Amino acid sequence: MTASQETLDEIALSRAEYEAIVDRLGREPGPLELGLFGALWSEHCGYKHTKALLRTLPSSSERMLVAPGAENAGVIDLGDGLAIAMKIESHNHPSAVEPFEGAATGVGGIIRDIFAMGARPIALLNSLRFGQPTDARTRYLLNGVIGGISSYGNCIGIPDVGGEIFFSDTYKGNPLVNAMCVGLIENGKMASASAKEPGDLLLLVGADTGRDGIHGASGLASRTFEEHAELRSAVQVGNPFLEKVLIEACLEALDLPGVVGLQDCGAAGITSAAIEMAERSGMGLQLHVDRVPRREEGMTPYEVMLSESQERMLLAVTHGKEGPVFALFEKWDLDATVIGEFENGRDVRIFDNGSAVSSTPIVTLTDAPEYRFTATKPDWLKTLQNADMTATPMPEATPEDVLLKMLAAPNIASKFPVYRQYDYHVQTNTVIEPGGDAAVLRLKGTKRGIALSTDCNGRICYLDPNVGTAIAVAEACRNLSVTGAEPIALTDGLNFGNPETPDVQFQLTEVIAGMTRAANAFGIPIVSGNASLYNETAGTSIYPTPIIGALGVLDDVEKHSTIGFKSEGDVIVLLGSDSAWDTIDGLAGSEYLELVHGRVEGQPVLDLDLEVRVQAVCRDAVRAGLVASAHDLSEGGMAVAIAESAITGGIGASISESPGDGNRWDAAMFGESQSRILLSVSSENLVEIETLAAAQDVPTAVIGAVGGDSLSFGDSISVPLNDASDAWKNGFSAATSDQPQK
Questions:
Q1: CA 304 and chain centroid, separation
Q2: Residues 312 and 392 occupy one common structural domain
């Protein structure tokens, strides 16, 4: 019987895709098979609108141990028997429907991807996007998401060490919740999500299966989100205490000789996990749904196969060696059940109480269609890029008032009210806490450390997806470099609107091109990632938001730098420019331009060659012990960076040159030109800094000195440090409070 349009809409398959399924099978699919196809051909599992583009990303490196897409997460070699597994994933639509559980289970899912690699999870980061906090629903979503992230991470005992939050009207109907996890693999004990030979058993361990999360991958993640849609049944419910036990039990199980494979039950549940394991193994699979432990009565095979109940893992175990595996999980008070067996052939055969309910070629299920794009730059974007920045009116407010307004803006103000809810010292590895440019963690038993960062300015990617994405890569790496860490790997979370529209197709194509260009410039690979499409409401798309997660390594974790000024009399040095102040071009896509003038326009610019050289100089200077502080210049420009370093260090600063000398003071103070790093150094180290910079042909400028109790810019602009500190430290709480503002 031909599937109805209502059925196809429910599982997010087009009529053309359904006809392709019929053609491949040579028959009409049954109801269960149609559900399998809906899940495995979804955007979340099949990447049908992005996989052709993703193949063009750079993924080669001498350090690469597991390439993108080969397993649950990418793995990068640190040497000395250590490796890092890392990945970022989205849980956008579930978080829009049920913010607490949506965010919490997003964290739980990315953790399972990491320990499925045999890695012990050691750090979490999150990259969040919301509408403006003046909106009551936005505040509800923000509080729910933060609550879900903190609850899951704190309960499971993994530190949440970094991330970012950005507010814009574009995300009002469709918030973004991207979770990143990093895990440590020791002594080469890396796991694979595959069986080894026919006869290997398929074990399900962890939580019982319920009806939560059905159509999570095919429904929530593969169609546009509308506010009126009743989608709560597609949102999973998490149990971090169970997952903590599951981590310990699974990592211990990997030491047993019978355990040959480990796989997370994530999007599409048993369907995706089991069938992809069989595909990786080059074998067929018989699966018995009646053996799956359930917490609800009357569940159909369709519901069992497509449930996304949380805290479940699949193991491939050698037949005859399952006894110790069962004993181990019983010790941890976990249920483990044999639900299938790998076999010769290439089909997945599903049984219910001995009766066959489906038999389908695995390659047909996993080989989702690919779509290729030919869209060109839209005229509306050309208009925005060609906007005349010199026509921007000067603000009526004074420079001092504008600076305080900028520091209090929710996109710039301290996010301490958020990360204070996270336990970022659990596991006792955290060296640089949240609030800096990047987090730094020690690797116990060694002198070494790692640095972690996430970054993306969707506003700049909207104005130029190619350049904006290159800037996201550059800034994520810059955040690492200012700590002294060398960037070695990237992961990406691609968040876009409807890929069936020309505008989004253009954005996707250009974003991948910009990411490729920037990663190649830094010589580092993309090791993993995730694509989340159809992020729009009522036909209005979000900004293209390619979140970049970055990993860096420090050979000596004690030789790192932080953003705060340290000592009276230190010299303030700017790397990347021979002038303290920005030009009018730096206003393009800036926080100042939108906050003060309500405009998002201009042409962002990035000199990648200069960027790479500036970061190299900074790293060399930090490693040589020449730097007292180092801070990335990004949102808010020079004046905000100076203020942040001063507030964090508890000491003022004086900039010698007035921002009005030959420049508009607003563009000079708040322009966001790239490839600039702010250093404070002792006067004794200044010559060595300048020598390092000259060797790399990096321009520098001595722009002022640390000291005093105010922020002074030339002779005429001065803000008391206490006032700046109050604005920056209290701005976020004031902006996101449900209480009326005075």
A1: 30
A2: no
Query: Could you tell me if 358 and 387 lie in one domain?
Result: no
- Looking at the structure, do residues 578 and 604 belong to the same domain, yes or no? yes
Question: In angstroms, rounded to a whole number, what is the distance separating the alpha carbons of residues 742 and 736?
Answer: 14
**Do 390 and 266 belong to one domain?**
no
Residue 469 belongs to some domain of the structure: no
Q: Name the token pair of 260.
A: 């040959």
Give the pLDDT confidence of 119-174 residue by residue, as tens digits: 999 999 999 999 999 999 999 999 999 999 999 999 999 999 999 999 999 999 99
- Which residues make Cβ contacts (< 8 Å) with residue 43, sequence separation at least 6? 12, 49, 50, 221, 222, 499, 531, 532, 533, 534
CA-CA distance, 31 to 166, in Å (whole number)? 42
- In terms of DSSP bridges, do strands 120-130 and 74-79 run parallel, antiparallel, or are they unpaired? unpaired
The percent of residues above 70 in pLDDT, for the chain, comes to 96
Q: Is 93 a catalytic residue?
A: no
Cα–chain center distance at 254 = 28
> How many Å apart are CA 145 and CA 380, to the nearest integer?
34
Number of domains in the chain: 2
Q: Is 91 a catalytic residue?
A: yes
Does residue 403 share a domain with residue 320?
A: no
CA pair distance 439, 434, nearest whole angstrom: 6
In angstroms, rounded to a whole number, what is the distance separating the alpha carbons of residues 7 and 39?
13
Q: What angle do CA 306, 307, 312 make, to 5 degrees?
A: 120
Start-end of H helices in 26-98: 31-40, 43-46, 51-54, 92-97
Asked whether residue 438 is assigned to any structural domain, the reply reads: no
Q: How many helices (H) and strands (E) would you count in the chain?
A: 25, 28
What would the pLDDT profile of 438-496 be if each residue is shown by its tens digit? 999 999 999 999 999 999 999 999 999 999 999 999 999 999 999 999 999 999 999 99
Verify that 361 and 300 share a domain, yes or no.
yes
* pTM higher than 0.90: yes
> Of 49, 91, 288, 631, which is the active-site residue?
91
**132 burial via Cβ count (<10 Å: 0-12, 13-18, 19+):** middle
The domain boundary, picked from 311, 339, 368, lies at: 368
DSSP state string for 453-487 = EEE--HHHHHH-HHHHHHHHHHHHHHHHHTTTPEE
What region does 215 belong to: left with phi over 0, alpha with psi -120 to 50, or beta?
left
In this structure, the answer to whether residues 268 and 386 fall within a common structural domain is no
Residue 5 in any domain: the answer is yes
Q: Rounded to whole angstroms, how far apart are CA atoms 406 and 402?
A: 6
- Which structural domain range is residue 705 located in? 376-413+561-742
Q: Which residues contact 398 (CB under 8 A, 6 or more apart)?
A: none
Burial of 420 (0-12, 13-18, 19+ CB in 10 A): exposed
Sheet holding 653-655, edge to edge: 629-632, 677-681, 571-575, 700-706, 653-655, 710-713, 717-720
Clarify whether residues 258 and 289 are in a common domain.
yes
CA 294 → CA 99, 102, 211, 304, 587, distances in Å? Answer: 26, 22, 9, 8, 57
Give the β-pairing of 120-130 and 160-167. parallel
- With a CB cutoff of 8 Å and minimum separation 6, the contacts of 431 are 440, 441, 442, 449, 557, 560
Residue 265 domain-assigned (yes or no): yes
In sequence order, the β-bridge partners of residue 549 are: 454, 491
**How distant, in Å, are the alpha carbons of 234, 265, 358, 670 from that of 174?**
16, 25, 37, 29
Tokens in use for 146?
């933060």
